[in-house]
Amino acid sequence: MWKRIPLYVKILLGMTAGILLGFIACALHFEGFVSDWVKPWGTIFIRLLKFVAVPLVFISLIKGIGGLKDISRLSHMGFRTVAIYIGTTVMAITVGLLLVNLIHPGKVFPREKAEEYRGRYEQTVDEKKKAAEEIKDAGPLAFLVDMVPENLIQAGSDNTKMLQIIFVALLFGIAMVAVGGEKMKVLMSALDAADTVILKIIDYIMEFAPLGVLGLMASLVVDSAGNGEIFAALGMYAFTVAFSLFLLIFLFYPALLRLFTSVKIKQFFWAMSPVQLLAFSTSSSAATLPLTLERTEQELKISNEVVSFVLPVGVTINMDGTSCYQAVATVFIAQVMGLELTLSQMLLIIFMTTLSSIGTPGIPGGSIVMFVMVLSSVGIPVEGLALILGMDRPLDMLRTVVNVTGDATVACMVEEGEKNRKGKHRLRGTDS
Ligand code: ASP
Q: Where are the bilayer-spanning segments (predicted)?
């Protein structure tokens, strides 16, 4: 019976049970029990997902690239992927900017709260400022240097260094195509077998998902108890962010799918629902990656070579939800501080939030440090960050849902492009 329940329903059950347990624990004062006995299951779940992400990306990307007959397809796919990612990010930011300028959430924010929050979050703001300065000092080509690992084991030991893993896998795959021949066939079938084993491990981890999600949600409710007053003060701001994200998920992505792919929207949401719920409960697109890969390949039937390249790259450089959120947050802080933003500042917001989302790691609250840089380059006092920190986690959950949905949408678009290209080559008799 349990086996026949769809994954998204199981995750939903876990989430509901976790939220209920969290509220009951707060009401009956057994928060300690939740921290000691329930939260660890959530932590174990996240660890399992993170642990499987590196071997999965590594093996399936080598397999995807190694299976190409013509490496020029890789550069075509790479270029298309990055171009679409940047395009969707700019669109997402524009949606956020339009709504925040229409709704004006900063105007209804109670002024007296601004000082209070500044005091409360002073230390966190200082920490984030320092971290942002370190990144700024790193120089313009630091991101390229960061992509190249010194050591394979080290690269695989840090999930935030996914680009290093992608780099090694690309190199390996390209070398495999160049060498070719019988030996490579053996290697390919070994990789295929390893990939199947990892997918099986993901199935096991997903069996554990309801309990893991229960642990995450229960501890989240317990940890956020007492924040009700902050949530009320920031209600209009939260509504603006949530509404923008909602438009992206239910209007923007379906429109892209309809215009540029043959994927049915219903089928897309069916395939993505467990991924979205997982993104919501973990607040981490990196932790969600194994499931995103599995569902897009198996349920949406996107080819392995496309998903294994497009999705891990997306987790590192494409964050539509995050960039949309940052645009709203920047203008909101300016509104509360009574600063009028000029058109050139708005354009700067588009540029900076695009860059910032590229540099944001797919972890809970990963964008806050980059957000400090956005604020300072637009000329808004970084202390304004204190205004929104109390509300960050619930909005992080929502923007992560958009981040993973955006990645999967682009995977569908790239797949369509590849199919069309293959079709054209076939017609011309130059099949690759
Ligand atoms: N939590 C987000 C993600 O993992 C990143 C962020 O916006 O902070 O995609």
A: 7-30, 42-62, 82-103, 162-180, 201-222, 234-256, 369-389
